Amino acid sequence: MEQFLEIINPHFLLRNAFYAGLIVGFVCPQVGIFFVLRRMILLGIALPQVSNAGITFAFLLCTVGWHFFPHIESEKAMALTGSVVFTLIAIFALAILERKRKGFTENRIGFTYALAGAASILFVSWNPYGQTEVLSLLRGEIVSIPDIYLWSMLAIYGTIFICLVGFHRNFVLVSYDTDMAITLGKRVNLWDILLYLIIGIVISFGVMTVGPLVIFGFLLIPAITARMITRGILPFCIVSSVIGTAASFIGFYISYRFDLPTGPTDIAILCIILALLYIGKILVRLKR
Amino acid sequence: MNTDNCITLENVAIGYSGKVLVKDINFSLKAGEFVVLFGPNGSGKTTLFKTILRIIPPIQGSIRYGDGHPTRFGYVPQRQFLDEIYPFTVEEVVLMGTFGQAKPFCPTPKTNRVWIEQCLKDVGMLDLRKKLFSELSGGQKQRILIARALATRPNVLLLDEPITGIDIIAQKKIIELITELHKKRRLTIMMVTHEVHHIPSWVNKIIHIHHYKVVLGSLEEIISLSRIDEIPTEG
User: Is A280 on the interface with B (CB under 8 A)?
Assistant: First the structure.
């Protein structure tokens, strides 16, 4: 109880990490529902890896003395740029190939994942300076998040959440029935581009803050869990975010209480919630 | 019956990626007509259907809509192309028909909710509105998709293979429903099918895609053309 009160205290030392986790837990599932509904789960694995490759590449450039923003001392801005650029290039290239129906989707995504994974490791191995930071990202150790970073995260994720809620009908319609959307006069390409842009930004910013494993987990597991227990698209969206936020809260508490890395603890909690609800669903079905 | 041309195709060629599938298509749909688009699988029915719906652009020729009056389509797709992973309730599926006018950041107006209830009532599915769409039978799904098309307040209803893959009783009921909508709401209807026995005898026009050409005719003419195809040829 003492630790719980400590965590929710506004002067708590690790409050930024706690708040960042809650923001990720709340917003990522809203993007993740489109990964699940559009059957793009593999893309949810590959894109965080691509984003990670962008970050490691930016760190490598920094080490060899090449800066996008020479006036900014921290290499974080450059890493974020690398993450955004790599993710957006990957997502749009994959979307164009998908539309042109060149080869199999799974092959393309598998190739992207392998390439990005290998590139990340190579960039890190050539760059001992950035190794510590990148490895802590990979492990999902959400500990030190500066105020400026938390506020920009809140602004970006907040804007994305508002867009997802405001344009929910259009995103759902173009995802579910493209032909119907066209007959209703919707610009399908425009909505697709906007959705991909949102996905790219959420992933690149999220990976930069909490790492690829945590982003992947929060994108997919809450949506998969909510899909299992809800009826209707609105409850599906609400329950996804509730599960994400709850897992983030419980995960942070447990990791603080037992001195565990936050990211993997969050993911473990998400998996436990999924397993419990699955068992509960089976028991309810058997009772009937 | 109103005799205004509602859709007119002139020298239209259809296909994908510049590759022509059917050419020299010339016909018009008059307001209030019931037209069947008939042809074997792979003949280009759905491509023509989607070209009329503006989903695919014509490769050649022109399509005129409405002759000055706005044409609003009610589109009923083949239900098997809709992914069941989406956890939509029946109500939510029908509500999609109102998304054409929906403004971003605004909740669904009460008038739209009342309207979709009316559409569900018209297809006899109001009781199932809270059920999951994926849990319905083929015939029930088809009715819901018709209700969704009605929710767009259409003057032309286009149905892609609406009775394929459902049992005979449900087929009969769907045809009765479409006929009733045609008569009561004075809707112009175009229905796609690949089976001759799905065509109601009283339809105004049958557009038959036969050996990559469009042929207009009565049910008897279409049946005789189909029979000629069944006669084995020498060599």
Answer: no
**Rounded distance between C-alpha atoms, residue A127 and residue A112, angstroms:** 22
Whether this model's ipTM surpasses 0.90 comes out as: no
Closest CA to B53 of B215, B214, B209, B192: B192
Count Cβ atoms within 10 A of the Cβ of residue B234 and give its class: 0-12 exposed, 13-18 middle, 19 or more buried.
Answer: exposed
Task: Give the C-alpha separation, A232 to B98, whole Å.
Answer: 17
When pLDDT is cut at 50, 70 and 90, the band that residue B230 belongs to is low
- Residues 95-114 of chain B whose Cβ lies under 8 A from any Cβ of chain A: 96, 99-100, 102, 104-105
Partner-chain contact B75 A180, CB within 8 Å? yes
Q: In whole angstroms, how far apart are CA A27 and each of A20, A249, B32, B146?
A: 11, 14, 49, 35
Is B78 a domain residue?
no
Per CB-CB distance under 8 Å, the chain B contacts of A230 are: 87
Tokens 């109001």, located at residue:
B126
Same domain? B159 vs B225: yes
Confidence at residue A137, expressed as pLDDT on a 0 to 100 scale? 63
Count how many Cα atoms sit within 13 Å of the Cα of residue B82 in the half-sphere of its side chain: 24
Nearest to B105 among A37, A166, A234 (CB): A166
Among the partner residues A169, A183, A230, nearest to B87 by beta-carbon distance: A230
pLDDT for the residue numbered A133: 67
Report the CATH superfamily, name and number, of domain A2-287: ABC transporter involved in vitamin B12 uptake, BtuC (1.10.3470.10)
* B157: closest chain A residue by CA: A183
Distance, in angstroms, between A185 CA and closest chain B CA? 7
Q: What is the pLDDT of residues B114-135, one digit of tens each?
A: 999 999 999 999 999 999 999 9
Nearest residue to A268 via CA among A252, A256, A253, A251: A251
Mean of pLDDT values over B34-53: 89
Q: Which domain holds residue B183?
A: 1-71+155-235
Residue A259, both tokens: 């001195």
pTM: 0.86
**Cβ A231–B132 below 8 Å, yes or no?**
yes
The predicted structure's pLDDT at residue B235: 40
CATH at residue B66: 3.40.50.300
Residues A14-46: tens digit of each pLDDT: 888 889 999 999 999 999 999 999 888 888 888
Segment B17-41 mean pLDDT: 88
Residue-wise pLDDT tens digits, A185-224: 999 989 999 998 899 899 888 888 888 888 989 999 999 9
Among the candidates B112, B135, B154, a domain finishes at: B154
Location of structure tokens 């599932």: A29
Using a CB–CB cutoff of 8 Å, tell me whether A166 touches chain B: yes
> Residue ranges of chain A with pLDDT lower than 50?
none
